[in-house]
Amino acid sequence: MKTIQFREAVCEAMSEEMRADDSIYLMGEEVAEYNGAYKASKGMLDEFGPKRVIDTPIAELGFAGIGVGSTMTGCRPIVEFMTFNFALVGIDQIINNAAKIRQMSGGQFKCPIVFRGPTASAGQLAATHSQAFESWFANTPGLKVIVPSNPYDAKGLLKSAIRDDDPVIFMESEQMYGDKGEVPEGEYVIPIGVADIKREGTDVTIVSFGKIIKEAYKAAEELEKEGISCEIIDLRTVRPMDHDAILNSVKKTNRLVILEEAWPFGNVATEITYQVQSKAFDYLDAPIVKINTADTPAPYSPVLLEEWLPNSNDVIKAVKKVMYK
Amino acid sequence: MQKITKEVYLNWYEDMLFWRKFEDKLAAVYIQQKVRGFLHLYNGQEAVLAGALHAMDLSKDKMITAYRNHVQPIGMGVDPKRVMAELYGKATGTSQGLGGSMHIFSKEHGFYGGHGIVGGQIPLGAGMAFGDKYHETGAVTLCYMGDGAVRQGSLHETFNMAMNWKLPVVFVCENNGYAMGTSVERTANHTDIWKLGLGYEMPCGPVDGMNPVKVAEAMHEAIERARRGDGPTFLEMKTYRYRGHSMSDAQHYRTKDEVEEYKKIDPINQVKDIILEKKYATEADIKKIDKRVKDLVSECEKFAEESPWPEKSLMYDAVYEQEDYPFLQHKL
Questions:
Q1: Catalytic residue status for A129
Q2: Minimum distance, in Å, between the CA of residue B146 and any CA atom of chain A
Q3: Max Cα–Cα distance, chain B, nearest Å
Q4: pLDDT of B99-136, one tens digit each?
Q5: Backbone phi and psi for residue A58, each to the nearest 5 degrees, phi listed first
Q6: At B161, which CATH number?
Q7: Is B63 contained in some domain?
Q8: Which residues on B lie below 8 Å from A98 (Cβ)?
Q9: CB distance from A87 to chain B under 8 Å?
Q10: Predicted confidence band at A39 (pLDDT cuts at 50, 70, 90)?
Q11: Contact criterion met (CB < 8 Å) for A65 and B123
Q12: Is A103 on the interface with B (CB under 8 A)?
């Protein structure tokens, strides 16, 4: 094993796959000469040259669509958004073209493309730079949505995403790129659609994904001191979702808390809540609690942002509620 | 460019007439509610397709357009029976009934759709050209759009990158005068759409879109420019549609006189006049062609009528390449 940063995991995954398959290219703002806005493509221009590592103008709609179009003539693009907040001006190309070209053509065209970049908040970036659209993309048939939480998962899942023949939304975080973690020296992949039990426990199940899962880790440490054992499931893939992993855990603990950095209306946690009540109703000893961001745009002021964003104290409170403590 | 011979004129006449009668048949069966959804017909614009096909290398060049898209794939070689069946929603259709009127596709014949969002296909066309340049295939993409689409931001972002990267694509605006019911004059401060290319230093110009010879000449120059690596061209085809935007269009935005004026320069009649004038064929020969066209349209209708409906499982099979994708249950 070796210890690398999250950004290096992303870079290794892309580089290894590009060495193996000439039809893969990387395109986006600042990915080439600048080495990536967050240095996730550091050194790739030098290795692969300007034909395969391509700086674009600031035109997300245009380059998202060019990426999709190039899949129709044999390319396998990785399109980087500097953040998924900026993907909104190109979302027509993702929802109406990438996700539908196979279905509309009766299976004649596949669309092997990866859209990747950071999601959700990253400090005091205010309303337009702090949004999490996992549930928007996950709502759309035709797409797959992956949100890793550590370097190991990021590398293994990004390699799978690049190899996948369907369009994949791969969501990272500005606040995770510097995170360090162990990855194997050799080649490995992690299958799409398989959740991971990050911490085993017996009293409560906490389901989460992406960088916010760290708040669940902190909460579980605290709760352990009080004798409460938390099982933490990292979804890793939001669509398709690993329902079995959640249900199996809930059948064991009989209590569920969901932690998701997203607005509360109709989000990923809502979907999990529906699935669990319909398939494990009789196993539940308490109503499910979900923890989200406030139902407002993200505020700038540190005092307000702290209130807006879920934290470990919110998780502790929720766990105690489902434990009736 | 290949010479425009007697055979070319005769083929143009038969093809364009077939496209028009095919669309007329669709209008008729639409009224009978055998074809549903939206239906956008190509009548009047046939020369834009006929001229382009003459200039293309159909062994590798590709075409993409918006939702007025029934006859282009036929021109590129797709069996018209399968296009008709697609509109009927039958399993024998080009997309097995999943696409309908707005989404005709044929990878085999280089027709890449068939797209429903105005302007959404413009970056796709550039992307197709990007892939061909990337793989050095020597193919050129013809990316069509209507006059409504040129007001979308997608055109401008795509023009910029296509020029910057010298992509082998020809952007073709079919200016038929109206974006649905809004005339070109009402959508911008200028009316010479081709001039939009100037801001990107893209070779551009207007073309008489009612004359297949003029279209073929302009297309040839643009396609060869793209093929030799000199990048995109933007052509504004000045054309006209005789029918409404779609079948529900009452056409209050224009006069009947205006439509009649354009019918005087009808592309099919222009070609027919040349054929008769140059004695490429007699009136009797023309009648034989007309009969063939009528019979083929009837065959298409019969095929579509008699074709089976798709299996319900197709709805799931077509979404993902992954064969065992775990779809959510949508009802009990």
A1: yes
A2: 18
A3: 69
A4: 999 999 999 999 999 999 999 999 999 999 999 999 99
A5: -80, 90
A6: 3.40.50.970
A7: yes
A8: none
A9: no
A10: very high
A11: yes
A12: yes
Q: Residue A266's pLDDT is what?
A: 97
Chain A residues 64-83 within an 8 A CB cutoff of chain B = 64-75
Structural domain harbouring B36: 6-317
Q: Which domains does chain A have, with CATH numbers?
A: 2-183 (3.40.50.970), 196-322 (3.40.50.920)
Q: Per the structure block, which two tokens stand in for A157?
A: 């899942």
Q: Is residue B322 part of a domain?
A: no
Q: Which of A17, A29, A129, A261 is catalytic?
A: A129
Contact A69 B318 (CB under 8 A): no
- On whether residue B330 sits in a domain, the answer given is no
Which is nearest to A193 in space by CA: A241, A155, A134?
Answer: A241
Say yes or no for a CB contact (<8 Å) between A105 and B131. no
- Is A60 annotated as catalytic? yes
Q: Among A74, A96, A97, select the one facing B135 at the smallest CB separation.
A: A74
Q: How confident is the model at residue A20, as a pLDDT?
A: 98
A-chain residue closest to B310, CA distance:
A106
Assigned domain for B1 exists: no
Sign of CA dihedral A220, A224, A226, A227: positive
* pLDDT reported for residue A163: 98
Q: Which whole-number Å values give the CA distances from B62 to A164, A274, A294, B109, B130, in the listed order?
A: 26, 46, 49, 8, 12
Q: What count of other Cβ atoms lies within 10 Å of the Cβ of residue A298?
A: 22
Q: Is the ipTM of this complex over 0.85?
A: yes
Half-sphere exposure of B115 (CA within 13 A, CB side): 31
Count the alpha carbons within 13 Å of A5 in the hemisphere toward its beta carbon: 15
Helices (H), ranges, A74-212: 91-92, 101-104, 134-138, 151-163
Beta strands at B178-179 and B182-183: parallel, antiparallel or unpaired: antiparallel
What's the whole-number average pLDDT of chain A? 98
**C-alpha to C-alpha distance for B239 and A174, rounded to whole angstroms:** 51
The answer to whether A278 contacts chain B (CB < 8 Å) is no
Give per-residue pLDDT as tens, B129-185: 999 999 999 999 999 999 999 999 999 999 999 999 999 999 999 999 999 999 999
Q: Give A258's pLDDT tier (boundaries 50, 70, 90).
A: very high
B42: which 2 tokens? Answer: 């190509």
Candidates B67, B115, B130, B152, partner chain A, best to mutate (most A CBs within 10 A): B130
**pLDDT band at residue B95, thresholds of 50, 70 and 90?**
very high
Q: Which of A8, A60, A231, A261 is catalytic?
A: A60
Say what the pLDDT of residue A239 is: 98
- Total structural domains in chain B? 1
pLDDT at B329: 94
For residues B170 and B236, the answer to whether their CB atoms sit within 8 Å is: no
Task: Give contacts of A163 with chain B, Cβ < 8 Å.
Answer: none
Give me the mean pLDDT over the A144-151 stretch.
98
C-alpha B278 chain-centroid distance:
29
pTM above 0.95? yes
CB–CB of B103 and A97 under 8 A? Answer: no
> Cα distance from B123 to chain A (closest Cα, Å)?
5
Q: Over B251-297, what HEC string results?
A: CCCCCHHHHHHHHCCCHHHHHHHHHHHCCCCCHHHHHHHHHHHHHHH
Q: Residue B34: what pLDDT?
A: 97
Note whether B219 and B52 are within 8 A (CB): yes
CA distances (Å), origin B305, targets A88, B82, B302: 43, 11, 5
- Report angle CA B317, B318, B322 to the nearest 5 degrees: 65
In chain A, % helix, strand, coil (3-state, to 5) comes to 40, 20, 45
